[in-house]
Amino acid sequence: MRLQELGEWELLQRLSAFAPAGQWDDDAALLTEQSGKTLVVNTDLLVEGVHFSETTVPPQELGWRAAAANLSDLAAMGCSSVVGLTVGLVAPGETSWSWVEGVYQGLSEALGHFGGCLLGGDCSSGAQRLLAITALGHVGDGPIRRGDGRPGDWLVCSGPHGLSRLGLALLLGEVNPQERELLPPALQTEAMRAHQRPQPRFDVVRQLSATRPDHAAWRVAGTDSSDGLQLAIANIARTSGCAATIERQALPMAPDFTRLASAERWCLSGGEDFELVLALEPSWAEALCRAMPDCTRLGWLVEGAAGTLSWAGSGTTLDSDEAGYCHFQSKSRPEGRPDDC
Fold first, then answer.
1. Element (H or E) spanning 120, and its range?
2. What is the radius of gyration, based on Cα positions, of the chain?
3. Which residues are CB-neighbours of 276 under 8 A, at least 6 positions away?
4. Of the candidates 251, 286, 328, which has an alpha carbon nearest to the alpha carbon of residue 5?
5. Which of 32, 65, 160, 164 is found 20 to 30 A from 200 (Cα to Cα)?
C-alpha cells in the first residue's frame, strides 16, 4: 500500500510496532537517567512548502517557530527545564547565508527566552529546505501522558484557539475586506504574532505543580494543540480509552474572533496554537483555572468509545474528518499548517 492510502495515523500505528509498546503514545519519549531524572526527547521536521513559506514567515520568525514547536512538545510532557536543541539543516546550494543566519538567530532567541542552548546538529544539501530538530528537557514534578485520563476528569485548555490560523489567513490575504473590518487592529496583530512567534506553555506546567491538591497523586493527561484543539482532545480520549463531551459555549475563542464566519472551525481545527490541553481531576482543574484566568474548562472525559467526541446537551458527534490536517491524504494545505496528525 502507498502512504496516501494508509494515511498518517495508520502509518504511525504500523511504525510503532518497531518500538516498545506504548512508546509512541505521547508527544515525546521519556527516558530515565542514572541520576533519577526523567529526560524528554522530541523530534520534529519542518519542510518548506508544507510547514513554512517565506511569504508568511521570515527566516528569524521561522527559527523561533521551529524552536517553539519542539519546546511546546516538551511542555506537553511536563518539562520544567530545557536542556537544548540539535538542528539538522537541509537546503539547496543557492540558499543565501542571510536566510540561514536569520533562522539560527531566531532559534537562539527562543532558547534565550525559554532556556537551553544549541547542542549541535548537521547540514546537508538538498532540493528542498527543511529543518529537523530534536529537543531535550527534564520533567518537573511528574510527566504529562496522553493516556492518564479517567472518566470524570475535566478537560482544560490553557488559552484561546484559532488565532494562529487567523494570523496565517491575514498574512496570506485570505480574509475578505468585510470580515477584516470587523476585527480590531490589536486582534489582527495578536493573531499574526501567534502564528509567527508561538509561546510554549511552560508556565502552565509550573502552575500545575503549584495548584496540585494536598496529598494528591500526580496524574495529568494532556498534549499540546499544535495539530488542532479537536484532535488534541481526541488523542487524549483515545489513548486514555475514554470518550469526551465538549461544551460548545465553552470553546476558547477571543471575543472579537467570534465575528468571523470561520471562528468555530478555526478554533477546533485551525492548529498551531501550541496551547496545552489537559485532563485533570475536577478539584485540581478548578484550582488551575482559578490560578490562570486564561484557562478554560472545555468539557470532560466520559465512558464510551475511545476517541469519540460529542457536544454536551445534544450528544451530536463531532465530525472527525474536520479534526485537523493529516499528512499523505490531504490534497491541499495552507502552508504553515500543523505538523503531524
1. strand 117-125
2. 19
3. 75, 76, 144, 157, 158, 201, 204, 205, 222, 223, 224, 225
4. 328
5. 32
User: Rounded to whole angstroms, what are the CA distances from 146 to 23, 77, 257?
Assistant: 12, 9, 29
> Order of strands, edge to edge, in the sheet holding 79-91?
29-32, 38-47, 130-139, 79-91, 117-125
Q: CA-CA distances (angstroms) from residue 88 to 43, 113, 223, 340?
A: 11, 21, 25, 18
Q: What nine digits make up the cell of 304?
A: 464510551
Query: For the chain, which domains are there?
Result: 3-139 (3.30.1330.10), 144-322 (3.90.650.10)
Grid coordinates representing 78 are: 511536563
Q: Cβ(162)–Cβ(270) under 8 Å?
A: yes
Q: DSSP of 226-275, one letter per residue?
A: TT-HHHHHHHHHHHHT-EEEE-GGG----GGGGGSTTHHHHHHH------
* Cβ-Cβ contacts under 8 Å for 231 (sequence gap 6 or more): 225, 269, 323, 324, 338, 341
Owner of C-alpha cell 496524574: 219
The secondary structure element, H or E, covering residue 110 is helix 97-114
Residue 94, classed as helix, strand or coil, is: coil
Nearest CA to 271 among 235, 228, 233? Answer: 228
pTM of the predicted protein model:
0.90
pLDDT tens for each residue of 46-87: 999 888 888 899 999 999 999 999 999 999 999 999 999 999
- As given in the structure block, the three cell numbers for residue 262 are 470561520
- Quick: pLDDT tens for 245-291: 999 999 999 999 999 999 999 999 999 999 999 999 999 999 999 99
